[in-house]
Amino acid sequence: MCKILEKMFLIKFTTVVFGKFNFIIFLTDDQDLILNSLEPLKNIEKFVTSKGVIFKNAFTTSPICCPSRSAILTGLYAHNTRTFNNSVEGGCYSNEWIKEHEGKTFPALLHDNGYRTFYAGKYLNDYYSKKVPYGYDDFYGLHGNSKYYNYTLTENGRIVEYGDMPEDYLTNVIKNQAKEFISNQSKDEPFLAVISTPSCHAPFTPEEKYKDALSNYTVPRSENFNVGAKATEKHWLLTMKPKKLSESVISKIEHYYRSRLQTLLSVDDMVGDIINQLEEQSLIDNTYIIFTSDNGYHLGNWAMPWDKRLPYETDIKIPLIIRGPNIQEKAVVDYPVALIDLAPTILSLAGISYDLTQFDGEPFDKLIDINNVDAEQLYERQILIEHYGEGTIDTFNPECPWRKSQRLAGCSIEADCKCQDSWNNTYACVRHLASDVDFLYCSFDDRENFNEAFDLSADPYQMNNIAYDILPSVQAIYQLIAENLKYCQGDSCRVIRPIYPF
């Protein structure tokens, strides 16, 4: 008994003294999971996936950059960060964000608890400032949206302009900044490094050495590829003409698909270089590596050209892979998780006390701990997916045959004038997963009060809208859940409301 107690004490003692783990987060931009973007990334497979866990059911809660990035940093849904789109007016790096949320992000909380903190790359889309956000010891923040050349960084309070030379390629610049930061770290002080690459966001500019790579890769021709929707199947935006994309648009989609993957090859190099450095500095065994994206992307699915503002798996399902101390290798986790879970999970892994009611997400640290016996328990989760359509009369494109009054957005000649967003592409969706449930229910805020529902276990490509076929009682309950999640805060966002009969 004494030896058992002594062993328990030593384990506890070790955790207290040496348990301050490091964290490195690789955050990509618009990287899909459904369209196989991980496939050519060999370093990520070798150094992250094969050494850790991949989450099969990881979701963004807003399929657009700034609301999603705000959610990652705060652990809050968009309706609680008040970040509804990528503009200052829509809450993106607004004065309200700075006042209410900047000091409460998980990097700020780590910083306040003794962590050295680093951020490099894309921050929030409307960040154009000399000011370093609160909580960072080293900050190299991109001004505005993703670029690869000809961009501006705020480097620890100093504004630095970059050009179009090979050495200016942003992924490599932030890699070198991260490597320099890591080179100054030791085992004595824990650190966080967030490395936020532009890849694979438009304009999809690959590094010179990769511009001809992956020439044999083609966009997956899934069941929903270039299939236009009928009026009762999808929201009005997806039923717009043309019902099928032209060959010229398909050719453009193929080009974009390969270009996106090419930009990710530089990210793959970065991951390999940084993990090799961690090994050389004997830091790898005490470091969690997290690889993820802010949202997914579609390319030709449902005859929609290219974007990410839809509530379907292509746009909301994201890569999430984690390796680190006490994490099983080559593991797959089915439990549904969301990007709002990262903040409380990282704080839990860091051993930092926090009030869970300040987050809308939930920590999943026990799911990845090989010593946790509860990791295999049955699960159930109802996650909110929310988007606020950005179409206004000012987003009208006179080159396309639509009217200002339709308030469409993202319409372009090169995409056959198939628009990517509209004022009424505003929805609250319930992504419901359990051991016997794989379901999406969406309620649109439009004049029709249009609803969509898909049983993904039977219809993985979301072709058949069954919202008006399910029992009225079931539809009413999902409608109630969507309404409750739209306004939830903290604990109320984690309430599971049973659906019987399904």
Q: What tags apply to this protein structure?
A:
single chain; about 500 residues; alpha/beta; 10-stranded mixed beta sheet; 4-stranded antiparallel beta sheet; 11 helices; about 25% helix; globular; disordered N terminus
Mean pLDDT: 93
What share of residues are in beta strands?
Answer: 15-25%
Radius of gyration: 22 Å
**General form:** globular
Residue share in helix: 10-25%
Largest sheet: 10 strands, mixed
Strand order of the largest sheet: 7-6-5-4-8-1-9-12-2-13
Based on helices, strands and strand pairing, what is the structural class? Answer: alpha/beta
Q: How many alpha or pi helices? A: 11
Number of strands: 20
* Cα separation of the termini: 51 Å
Stretches where pLDDT is under 50 for at least 5 consecutive residues are 1-18
Describe the structure.
- The structure is a single chain.
- The chain is of the alpha/beta class.
- The chain contains eleven helices and 20 strands.
- The chain has a ten-stranded mixed beta sheet, with helices on both faces. Strands 15-18-19-20 form a four-stranded antiparallel beta sheet, covered by helices on one side.
- Strand 6 (152-155) and strand 7 (158-161) form a beta hairpin.
- Helix 7 (170-183) runs parallel beside helix 8.
- The protein is globular, with a radius of gyration of 22 Å.
Could you outline the blueprint of secondary structure elements for this entry?
Layout (H helix, E strand, L loop, with lengths): L1 H17 L3 E7 L13 H6 L5 E3 L2 E2 L5 H10 L3 H4 L13 H6 L5 H7 L3 E7 L15 E5 L9 E4 L2 E4 L8 H14 L7 E6 L50 H34 L6 E7 L4 E2 L6 E2 L5 H4 L3 E4 L7 E3 L3 E2 L3 H8 L30 E8 L20 E2 L11 E2 L4 E8 L2 E8 L6 E5 L16 H15 L16
Parallel strand pairs: 1-8, 1-9, 2-13, 3-14, 4-5, 4-8
Antiparallel strand pairs: 2-12, 5-6, 6-7, 9-12, 10-11, 15-18, 16-17, 18-19, 19-20
